[in-house]
Design a protein that fits this description.
alpha/beta; Rossmann fold; 32% helix
């Protein structure tokens, strides 16, 4: 059993490599960097504020689409990567708003700041820190967004408590994430490359929702729920062909969801 610190280091190293190589492969769903596993990455191209240099295709949804961001809002993006969702949020909150991106990978924060400088955005900032200990004062955010990141955090209870803390009263979040329904093989869950890509750190859906509720959130709404289908060669590491087909056709599996909830 890996410690929380070991798991964080795995994620940090993986995502550091991605930004270093300017890779377009998705750490979300596979360990072979020579292949494209971006099976969950959504198409941002037609969204206002989209910047291709900030899109590393590491997400599993478009949380800003359901975030109900208004002009002048303060938006915090947890696990902001190279800034993709921050720049889309900035288009919604306008010049009178404020967007704060948080990431715990130095190279991601540096890349995001570089992207913001190129775009000339003065109301978008990026800070280094962990979601379990967010370096942002309480009651800061009108809206919190996050894209395929909470599943990578070892202490999800603390992560959602911190999310609750930084939100203003009446604020809300829109979070895209990976959850499970039914059990998947232990080997798949413990594969380091898969952990850095969302799957091994994922919880059962009901357990995930229970953590959100216990953090104090209400009016939980799943806006999107989509079953993920990995590359066959990944499944075949852990299943026979017959088991793989049965797993694919069942209601069990790995899902991306976009969840909204209010403080």
């Amino acid at each position: 059993m890996r410690t929380a610190e070991e798991l964080k280091n795995i994620v940090k190293e993986k995502y550091g490599e991605i930004v270093e190589k300017s890779s377009k492969s998705c750490a979300c769903c596979g360990g072979d960097e020579e292949k494209d596993y971006s099976v969950l990455a959504e198409d941002y191209a037609n969204l206002e504020g989209y910047n291709p240099e900030a899109d590393l295709q590491l997400g599993c949804g478009i949380p800003t689409r359901y975030a109900q961001i208004n002009k002048g809002d303060t938006v915090v993006d947890l696990g902001s990567g190279a800034g993709n969702d921050c720049f889309v949020a900035r288009a919604l909150t306008g010049e009178e708003g404020r967007v704060i991106g948080l990431d715990f990978t130095d190279r991601m924060v540096s890349k995001a700041r570089e992207n913001a400088r190129k775009l000339g955005y003065e109301n978008v900032e990026f800070v280094l820190g962990e979601i379990e200990h967010i370096p942002i004062p309480e009651y800061t955010a009108d809206v919190v967004v996050s894209n395929c990141v909470m599943n990578l955090v070892p202490d999800k209870t603390k992560a959602f408590q911190e999310t609750y803390r930084i939100l203003k009263k009446g604020g809300h979040f829109s979070i895209s994430d990976i959850v499970l329904k039914g059990e998947i093989p232990e080997g798949l869950r413990n594969d380091a490359a898969m952990y850095a890509g969302c799957v091994s750190g994922a919880l059962q859906l009901e357990d995930y929702l229970d953590i959100v509720r216990k953090a104090g959130f209400r009016e939980l709404i799943i806006q999107v729920k989509k079953k993920m289908d990995l590359e066959e060669e990944i499944y075949m590491k852990y299943f026979t062909r017959e088991e793989m087909e049965a797993f694919r056709q069942s209601d069990k599996g790995i899902f991306s969801i976009t969840l909204n909830a209010k403080k």
